[in-house]
Design brief:
Elements (H helix, E strand, L loop, with lengths): L1 E7 L5 H11 L3 E5 L1 H5 L1 H10 L5 E5 L1 H9 L8 E5 L2 H10 L5 E6 L7 E4 L2 E3 L1 H12 L3 E4 L8 E2 H4 L2
Parallel strand pairs: 1-4, 1-5, 2-3, 2-4, 5-8
Antiparallel strand pairs: 6-7, 8-9
């Protein structure tokens, strides 16, 4: 079962690997990203960031959806990490068991506006996040588990 799906453009790093994994009490981390799944250097860096005692799967987005839809996944507490809102929307739409999406880090780029000090969005991101909400899935924004939860709607006012 999916405990949390997180959008973080850095994918798996210390903050995600340790703070969130410990807070959520997960058995496994699924990094769903097409580049990470096919680039040996990125894959190696992600493996180095993974905490001991937690299973790690690095899959393409399509493979990640297949993994989440496998009945065996219902018995495992999974933390899903994706790089962007587009991948999160696709996983939310096609993957089973997504109830909560956390937006933790989207870097500043041309044409994006600041939601929080670590989250910058453009119209496409907002459309993707709203499409997740339309599926009945909660979308929250916070960097670490100890931060106060902020709803997407609250930040877009």
């Amino acid at each position: 079962m999916v405990i949390l799906t997180r959008i973080d453009d850095r994918l798996l790093h210390g903050q995600v690997a340790f703070a969130w994994t410990k807070s959520l009490g997960v058995d496994a981390i699924l990094v769903a990203n097409d580049n990470a799944a096919t680039d040996p250097i990125t894959k190696m860096a992600i493996k180095m960031a993974a905490p001991n005692g937690v299973k790690l799967a690095i899959k393409t987005v399509k493979e990640g959806i297949e993994l989440l839809n496998n009945p065996k996944s219902e018995k495992v507490k999974i933390f899903v990490v994706v790089k962007n809102t587009e991948d999160a929307a696709l996983i939310a739409k096609e993957g089973k068991g997504i109830n909560l999406v956390n937006v933790g880090g989207i870097k500043k780029q041309e044409g994006k506006r600041m939601l929080t000090k670590a989250v910058f969005v453009d119209d496409k991101d907002i459309t993707n996040l709203r499409s997740i909400e339309e599926l009945g899935i909660e979308v929250e924004v916070r960097q670490v588990p100890t931060d106060a939860k902020k709803s997407l709607s609250e930040l877009l006012k």
